[in-house]
Structures are given as structure tokens and as C-alpha cells.
From TrEMBL:
Keywords: ATP-binding, Cytoplasm, Kinase, Nucleotide-binding, Transferase. Its EC number is 2.7.4.25. This is Cytidylate kinase. Residues 166-177 have a biased composition (Basic and acidic residues). Its main location: cytoplasm.
């Protein structure tokens, strides 16, 4: 029997630490779909801004750097590469400097306009193959792909999200302190939800899924059920 494959777009939104990246990649891999991490795009642009030693509070300069940056996103869920000016920066964009500055950079309207256009191009390309794509971020269901066949807003308690972030940092060789990570989670929630352009919020037609008490397998199981309920599966090769 042919394996079922995703048709169309699954949009996964939510704040930091809800497990978006991990479950999005696994869901895409299981359903033979492409995968796009839009947060990584903003992080890559933020890295470019920091390397250019530009003030993140200067929208014009931030936009100039963003327009000049050559950003390439791999959409294979098994190897989701992020290239900045032909350099793989998957690890660098997860560091504390980028994490501390990304909300400011992503709040610049011109940067969002630039990256949303690129994100829509990547989604369109993935759908041409034909196939489906799992897209994760903070404004996918509301701005980037409002016509997605399935929109899910992932949530979790701030304590659970801080613990996950701390464990992830430690496993990847970065210093992790639970107290400071929790403070950063709360800070980013406020910044992302309070920005004027494309704030973090649940789309009106999105399903909400609390991941506080669920492991990765449990979240993916729930997502698979939602995909099936929306009739987004077709026969694979």
C-alpha cells in the first residue's frame, strides 16, 4: 500500500518553546512533505544584522542588511539547511545573541514584508511538485498562508517551555540557565504578541493544541489526526 502523503499546507504557529520545530519536522517527514521554518529565516537575518554591527533599533539599516543578505532555506525535513551568504548557520542562529535580538529585527515591517514574500514563494514551490508543506512560525495562519488547509496554534505553559529550551540549549552545547531562560521566554512572548506588524496570535479558524503534558510523539499523533480529519492526505508514490 502506498504511503499517504500530505496535500496542501499545514500551518503551525505558537510561541517559543512549544515544540513547533521538532514536531513540524517529524510531521513533514512522516507525510512526505516539505518543511519550512520561518523563524529560522528571521534568525538568519538577525545574524546578518549583528555581523554587520548594525543597531537593531534602526529600521532603515536593518532593512538594508536584510535586503543584501543572501538567504537560502532547505525544505527537506530530514536536513533543513539554513544558509546565509552560502554559509551554513544552523547552529549560529540558535545562540543567545541572536535569540536576544531576533524579536527586534522581526518587528521591522520592511523585513517582514521581504521575508513573507520569500516564504510564499517557497510554499508555492513546494506545492508544485506536487505535494504538501508543513510551515511553522508565528504568523503563518494569519499572514503567510491564511488559506492553509489546517492551522494549528501550539501552546504550553511558560514553565514547560523554559524547561524545554534549557534542555535543548544544554544538549546542543550552549549554556542553559532555567531562570534566565524563563525570563527570556516571557520577554519574547510580550514582544512578539505586542508588535504592531503581524503580532503573534491564534488565527480565528486555528485549532489550539496544548503541548504542556505531551511528548513529541503525542503531539505528532494529534497533528496526524487533525490532518486526516481535514482530508489533506493523498496517495504517495
Amino acid at each position: 500500500m502506498a504511503q499517504a502523503r500530505l496535500r496542501g499546507v499545514v500551518a503551525l504557529d505558537g510561541p517559543s518553546g512549544t515544540g513547533k520545530s521538532t514536531v513540524s519536522r517529524r510531521l513533514a517527514a512522516e507525510l512526505g512533505a516539505a518543511y519550512l521554518d520561518t523563524g529560522a529565516m528571521y534568525r538568519a537575518v538577525t545574524l546578518a544584522v549583528l555581523r554587520a554591527e548594525v543597531d537593531t533599533g534602526d529600521p532603515a539599516e536593518v532593512t538594508r542588511v536584510a535586503r543584501a543578505a543572501r538567504l537560502t532555506m532547505g525544505t527537506d525535513p530530514l536536513a533543513p539547511a539554513v544558509l546565509l551568504d552560502d554559509e551554513g548557520v544552523e547552529q549560529q542562529i540558535r545562540g543567545p545573541e541572536v535569540t536576544g535580538a531576533v524579536s527586534a529585527v522581526s518587528a521591522v515591517a520592511e523585513v517582514r514584508e521581504l521575508l513573507v514574500a520569500t516564504q510564499r514563494e517557497l510554499i508555492a514551490g513546494a506545492l508544485e511538485e506536487p505535494g504538501g508543506v508543513v510551515v511553522e512560525g508565528r504568523d503563518i495562519g494569519t499572514v503567510v498562508a491564511p488559506e492553509a488547509g489546517l492551522k494549528v496554534y501550539l501552546t504550553a505553559s511558560s514553565d514547560a517551555r523554559a524547561l524545554r529550551r534549557t534542555k535543548q540549549d544544554s544538549s546542543e552545547g550552549r549554556d542553559g540557565d532555567l531562570g534566565s531562560t524563563h525570563a527570556d521566554v516571557v520577554r519574547r512572548d510580550a514582544l512578539d504578541s505586542g508588535r504592531k506588524v503581524a503580532p503573534l496570535r491564534r488565527a480565528d479558524d486555528a485549532m489550539e493544541l496544548d503541548t504542556t503534558e505531551l511528548d513529541v510523539a503525542g503531539v505528532v499523533e494529534q497533528l496526524n489526526k487533525l490532518v486526516e480529519s481535514r482530508d489533506l492526505l493523498g496517495e504517495g508514490r
